Amino acid sequence: MAQMWITMGPQHPMTHGLWTLRVKVDGETVVDTEAELGYIHRGVEKIAESRDFTQITPYCDRLCYVSAMTWANSYIYAAEDLLEVEVPERAEYIRLISAECQRLASHLMWLGAYGPDIGSLTLMTWCMRDREMFLDLLQELGGSRMHYNYPRIGGVKRDIPVGFADRLVAKVKLFEKRIEEYEMMLDESTIWLVRLQGVGYANAEDMVNAGVSGPNIRAAGVNYDARWAHPYSVYDQVDWEPAVEKPTSVKGADCYDRYRVRMEEMRQSCRMILDAIEKIPGGKNTNYSNGDEMILAKAPTRAPEGATGFSNYECTRGASKFYIQGGGDGRGKNPYRLSIRSPMFITIPYVAKTMIGYKVADIPAIMGSFDPCIGETDR
Amino acid sequence: MAGQDENYAAFNSRALVEMVGDVTDEALKATKIKQFLSVLAGRYFNWAGRKSLFTLHLGIKCCAIEMAAAATPRFDGDRFGVLFRSSPRQSDVLLVNGPITKKFADKVVRLWEQMPEPKYCIAMGECAISGGPYFQSYNVLEGVDTVIPVDVYIPGCPPRPEALIDGFGLLREKIIRIGAAPSSGRKGEKPIIVGED
Amino acid sequence: MGMRVSNEQSDSAAESCVAILSKRFGGSDVVSTVEHHSNAFKMAFVRIHCPPQHWPAVAKSLRFDHGANYCSMVTGTHFPEGSDDRGWEVVYHLMRQPVVDQKPFTNTVLVASELTGSDIPLEFEILVALPQGDEPSVPSVQSVWVGADWNEKETWDLVGIRFEGHENMHRVLNPHDSPEGFHPLQKQHKLRYHDYNEMYDDAQGFGRKPTDEGRVK
Predict the structure, then answer these.
(1) Per-residue pLDDT, C102
(2) Are residues B82 and B35 in the same domain?
(3) What tens digit of pLDDT does each residue of C82-94 get?
(4) How many whole angstroms separate alpha carbon C124 and alpha carbon C46?
(5) What count of CB pairs under 8 Å joins A to C?
(6) Is residue B88 part of a domain?
(7) Residues of A in contact with C175 (CB under 8 A)
(8) CA angle, C124 as apex, C122 and C126 as ends, to 5°?
(9) Which end of chain A has the least Cβ crowding within 10 Å, N or C?
(10) Given an 8 Å threshold on Cβ–Cβ distance, is A222 in contact with C110?
(11) Residue B123 and residue B27 share a domain
């Protein structure tokens, strides 16, 4: 049987973003793969060298657009390391609540895009409907549905509105029931189980050596989460556990394990949000004005040459890290070098190798289960 | 019919069809029914085309998520006939929803070429209109209208799904006006921008 | 309650690692110190200044003796106005993440406060300073960490630092037909409109228009 290279090109409904996956097929079996990225390389690292530290936050929202709040927070932690800023506790609680709401919205977007890959168009409509609930909450905080520009160096831009806590609790409690509906629909569906189980094995040791992180390695039994291993914010004060799945084979975790990890993470995020909104210092119905010291600390705007900042943040898709070197233009107002580490940039070449040995029809299932987002990959 | 010398008593079916077609055509032109029918047919095709705009499944960057949200139950673009097709050969509208980089510019032009006439292009979001926040970048083209002709501009970063549906509405009004003119013949048109009253 | 690695644990892990490194590489120019972040919980990490010729040995020692099994990121910076021995710099961020050898049908139940010794997660930052010049190069660690592979490709693509011994180096973010020697993050390349001149519709030199203009299909 002749072997040939097929290009699953940049415009493809499966690819969840703009990249090319070239597969070498022998009949129906995948023999080799090659990934090509860079179709939306915008040069954010270069642009950041001409922007103030506050002006870079909107660019970081747009890195991974499905999960904007977590990326903005990731950058802000690095900038706070560089400028040596202490953040008030209420602001940390608000950041936790906003990041976990964003994690829920992002996992719902993942599930809503994964359903049609497997063939379940109903799942897309259900997930996007539930995602709208959390987008409304984030819109109350940040002002926009997707790119909020909400965290500031030293805190957050504005406080939670009056009545936000009641809406948040009501929506999260409703969503906890909805998670059970999803599991009822999916875990008892033969098509879902047949397409996901036994497909796309990824070994824990290989994944860690390759630099994969986040829910993808937690599906292989590796209990590693930057929220407890390299702690930041107030995650040690709220009630949660990392969501870890047992891999079902010596070959590693399959797509079904990765799906289960994300469902469990959604449950843990709900738990964190409900706990944090009760424990927030200053009360959940007080609304401090913008710039109040309860939500925003004074921060220097210049970083001297030689100062560096590094953040290790648990984004929805893995560990996102920022490394900033200070001392740029404007006597230190701009960074000299901003380096962004995207978890998906490392994962996508690894996933391309995971597909070898399976059929062409399994490619969307495997690719989607790792949750690619090309915005952060191409920077 | 030079090749039919042996058998000029019998028509082949193609010659028969052509002859009947010519005769009918002359008759209709003489009675002005042809003009009437072509206006009706044009209006019918125009109605059918603008009520079912098949959009290409192209998701470049963040605005693609709002495009997906516009297809979901809350905003529901499907009730306006907007359906997403995977192949450019089967779609009418190229909805560009992200910045065009040097690497992707050739592919966008190729997708545009593969779409059959009548075709329309909507530039959604700041990056597709003018390069957006990345206008200074070394890799980003300043707007998709540097390479393909654009009919409707939808500003926003990202524009809300309601703005996208409004953009499709303005495109429908434009289609009523221009009919099925080929895309190069629309150069003199004033650009349509959503939100500009 | 959520758990976390405590400051004492990370301090002790960093100090023991620095002690072993200093004993092994102490005489040469490899300097390792324990630093602390300036925000959040001010956790400790290990910072190593390493000249490029010792880098492969340090890398292997970190990987196999100290368990740094995760290569996070590789950053390259261009210092045209830096000192003579620091014209370019490559910063490697590594991480020790403690769980390996995962058996099927098990997940590791970790209690953060009970982690000891080399099970404690730790961050490493290695700064390799390269001399001024037009041809910076660093030995590649592609064989030590698989995760360094694409990171090094990206650093070469954007900054122009060559990695000796790296197989299959190619452009990964810039287009494949970028000019030879064009590495955008070098400081002599300025952004467009850097001097606030008049904006125009720039197609970045892409001149091809659709070929089907006027054709009705």
Answers:
(1) 67
(2) no
(3) 788 888 999 999 9
(4) 5
(5) 176
(6) yes
(7) 38
(8) 175
(9) N
(10) no
(11) no
Question: In this complex, do A220 and C102 lie within 8 Å of one another by their Cβ atoms?
Answer: yes
Chain C residues within 8 A of B178 when measuring between CB atoms: none
- A-chain residues near B158 (CB < 8 A): 145-147
Structure confidence by residue, pLDDT tens digits, A137-191: 999 888 888 898 999 998 898 888 888 999 999 999 999 999 999 999 898 889 9
For chain B positions 8-37, those within 8 Å of chain A (CB to CB) are: none
Pairwise CB contact (< 8 Å): B105 & C206: yes
Q: How many domains does chain A have?
A: 1
Whether residues B42 and B138 share a domain: the answer is no
pLDDT of residue C212: 64
B187 pLDDT exceeds 80?
A: no
Domain that holds residue C113: 7-101+109-151
Within this chain, do residues B69 and B26 fall inside the same structural domain, yes or no?
A: no
CB-CB neighbors (< 8 A) of C204 in chain B? 102, 105, 138-141
How close A130 gets to chain C, by Cα (Å)?
Answer: 27
User: What confidence tens digit (pLDDT) does each residue in B146-159 have?
Assistant: 888 888 999 988 89
Residues in A touching C123 (Cβ below 8 Å): 230, 310, 312
The rounded distance, in Å, linking the Cα atoms of A155 and A243 is 28
Taking residues A330-358, report their average pLDDT. Answer: 89
Higher pLDDT, A322 or B7: A322
Q: Domain range for residue B32?
A: 9-46
Assign residue C19 the CATH number of its domain: 3.30.460.80
Count of structural domains, chain B = 2
DSSP calls for A13-34: TTSSSS-EEEEEEETTEEEEEE
Burial of B182 (0-12, 13-18, 19+ CB in 10 A): middle
CATH number of the domain enclosing A157: 1.10.645.10
Q: Quick check: C117 pLDDT over 80?
A: no
**Which range is least confidently modeled, A182-191, C100-109, C159-168?**
C100-109
Q: What is the CA radius of gyration of chain B?
A: 22
Give this prediction's pTM: 0.90
Residue B80 lies in a domain: yes
Q: What is the DSSP string of A227-262?
A: HHHS--TTTTTS---------SBTTBB-HHHHHHHH
Tell me how many residue pairs between chain B and chain C have CB atoms under 8 A apart.
Answer: 74
Task: Tell me if chain B has a CB within 8 Å of the CB of A142.
Answer: no
Q: How many domains in chain C? A: 1
Which residue is associated with the tokens 């709401």? A101
In a shared domain, residues B38 and B109 = no
Give me the sheet containing A308-315, strands edge to edge. Answer: A308-315, A318-325, A337-341
Which residues have CB under 8 Å from C168's CB, separation 6+?
none
CA atoms within 13 A on the CB side of B102: 16
Residue of A38, A50, A65 with shortest CB distance to B62: A65
For residue C182, being part of any structural domain is answered with no
Phi, psi of B82 (to 5 degrees): -85, 115
Confidence label for A230 from pLDDT (cuts 50, 70 and 90):
confident
Flag whether B1 is in a domain: no
Q: pLDDT for C41-54, tens place per residue?
A: 888 888 999 888 88
The whole domain housing A240 covers 3-378
B71 reaches C (C-beta below 8 A): no
Q: What is the pLDDT of residues A93-132, one digit of tens each?
A: 999 999 999 999 999 999 999 998 888 888 999 999 999 9
- Report if residue B25 sits inside a domain: yes
Are residue B66 and residue B93 in the same domain, yes or no? yes
Task: Examine the domain organization and report whether B25 and B66 are in the same domain.
Answer: no
**CB within 8 Å: C4 and A235:** yes
- State whether B39 and B56 are in the same domain: no
